[in-house]
Design a protein that fits this description.
With 546 residues, this protein is an alpha/beta fold.
Length: 546
Amino acid sequence: MAENTKYIFVTGGVLSSLGKGLASAAIGMLLESRGLTVTIQKLDPYINVDPGTMNPFQHGEVYVTDDGTETDLDLGHYERFTHARLGKNNNFTTGKIYHQVITKERRGEYLGGTVQVIPHITDEIKQSICLVSNDVDVVIVEIGGTIGDIESLPFLEAIRQFKADAGPGNVIYIHLTLVPYIKTACEVKTKPTQHSVKELRSIGIQPDILLCRTEHYLSQDIKDKIALFCNVESDAVFTAKDVDCIYEVPLVYNKEGLGTKILKKLNIWARSPRLDEWREMVEKLKHPRFSVRIAIVGKYVDLTESYKSLNEALTHGGISNEARVDLQFVDSTTLTEKNVAEVLSASDGILVPGGFGSRGIEGKILAAKYARENKVPYFGICLGMHMAVIEIARHLAGMEDANGEEFDPDTPYPVIYLMKEWFDEQTGQVEKRDETSDKGGTMRLGAYPCRLVPDTFAFNAYKHENISERHRHRYEFNNAYKERLEKAGLVISGTSPDHELVEIVELADHPWYLGCQFHPEFKSRPMDPHPLFKAFIRASLKNAKK
């Protein structure tokens, strides 16, 4: 481990979805505002090696880093709130840890010894934490799951040991818990927090700081009570109050004095926090001048966390245009020729996001057609770009039965096809795939370069000829139909530098119609909105004002 690096371990109790990821991200943002450098790591207790093959209904979105790692969605929060750029070492799962230990055992690295959870699994976890500790002042490590879950015990044991290894002055534990407000009694209840801390202490971890998730600011009396029963200092109990927008969280923590307490506990001297620009951004978000309605036509719309980065990127685009973005989630499986106009007519812009599988595909194609014919700004991301290409092929290029090989392997016009060979920017090697390849980790993943064509929607948004964006897909634009589609009006405005891979398509005779093969939402930040989302919201605002 790095000699001067400090470590913050964030755990959660009582129940899931309290917001450990947001809390970790907000803590990172507060420390950065004081001039410190941070990185954030997520340790997840599930046995999947990564979330790449997990259903979005169960797990939410899969976030992708520049180096092509498929990670937990909390890493999106980390990157949106801080300047940290994360990669493969910032997300470890039980599956990944055990896979590494078993691989070492097969190689004979344990010299024939019996491989056990302690010390082998816990040592592997500690080594994983150390991988991200170089060149930063503070490492924040979020432990997934809830205290009491059997799955997270090896991680908790590892971070318990870590304090002895790094030294007590270099490690603190922050526990996020729930203090519910009981309306019928008109009072808050501290017992869930007491039990959660008791459970944590029973495995050898005494929290240094408590973040109490609640609806209202806690009184000093309540904080004193929690401190007494949980064996923490009374000024180490902080309100993690519910907020209207997630970007207020660091401001609430700062108001409570959390940053100052963390520095004191870690014996760090730093400047006062500089939060003026962040406050300005939150004010713009909370008090917009305009409003715009965007229809998101997808098939995971019942669980908005499936499109977490996408929703946030649209919000960022709204901030830059001083607009509130109202999202209309449309289940693509319900769209038909008869109802598409009725469902989408109230929207100022239409966005079709990424996804996999054939369910709901025809509804998405209908949405692309409606946007094209009615001059409604259209933004197709990954699968959404494929939908636009298929729709144009069918209705403008005379290929009536055009489709993608993923949805119809026997289509006579596979305008979208399985990419079987490409140059991997991360490995520097030619990658090969076919229909029999494993599903996990076998896509074109991570950052790839793209060259833009001047005087296009894409170029006018980026203002640069060369860009880099993050990918996550198996299927590509089929160059065999490139000439025919271009004659029908399709504009190819972005390609790989060797022009072999089509990255962005557009329609010229339209207010704003663009599809991109990559996922721009992964690089959008509230203080630095992504150019394509800024441009899409701007075009949708113009459409709204009509």
